[in-house]
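Many introductory courses stop at the sequence. We go one step further.
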Amino acid sequence: MIKLHTSTHRDIDQKDSVAPTAIAILQSVLDHQSDCLMARDWDGLHDTFSLPYKRVFINSETIIETRKDTQIGHTSFLDSLESLSVNQFIRLATDAEFLGKDYIEGFYVSHVLRGTVPMVPSYNNRLVLKRTNETWCIIEIESSIVVPQWPPDLSIKPTATIAPHLGSKNDVRRSLAEPLSLYQAFLDAYGQTIIDKKFDAFCALYCFPCSYHSLTKDLIVKGPEDLAQVFDDLSGSYDGRRGDNLVRTADRAEFLQADLICGYHTALVYRDGKQSAPPLKSRMLLKRHNTKWRLISVTNALDDDSYSLETPRPNNQLPTLREIQERTKSWPTSL
């Protein structure tokens, strides 16, 4: 965790009265994280990430939501370095800029060395840091290598190819938009289409194909024809079959890339002002299309093995996106 207090940044070659530059902050985070990794300081390493965060390679991407998965990935990475007798893992920042006041986009090169000998071809990376109070943590990281598996193993020589993309001038993080507010606005609009019985407007909030997940089920939603039953089931929370009102409250949300929100919310069904069903935890992934946010994936903490929400059996635990990714390996594309 990199806390930007003057006393902890005297090594950034700036006067104490001058705020650190974006590239200085980036290099400080990289150095601290590399130190934690090589020392197997997992607590220190965890604190350099904001959960959830997105991890991208040329041939794969994944969203990490837990400290456990963070440690699994980095343990494998470090084990592979040690198998190559690597004694220096150096990452040098090359460029960085502020995206608004709370995000930094940066670029760096990774050098994997035994003494002065490269054990893996040096490769380019891009990352985004998020600031919470005065702490900068990684929320998106992209490396220009092809890895054969997850967790990554550099002992299986990775292929270094093109550099990461240069980012997007339309990155939502350049604005003053808050992910939690955008996520709640989407939830409200989603519910209003059901209250108004506007099926076409409900379908317009989806990006097809999208995916549905529960604790035991994974489905591809190919088009509006797959949503008719869902729309009817959800209507039951408003028309008296299960209740007369459903309130979705956003718990947290994050921008995981220029046009992606990962959000978590709780749904409560009421009848005559009293809760009539157990709370339901859910996660949605929203993708921006022009100025509109659309649903590309939804996960409900349901124990039942059916798509219907008519008689749900909520569970407190959502399956992670990593677990879902493992379950859906046979799908044409992964999340």
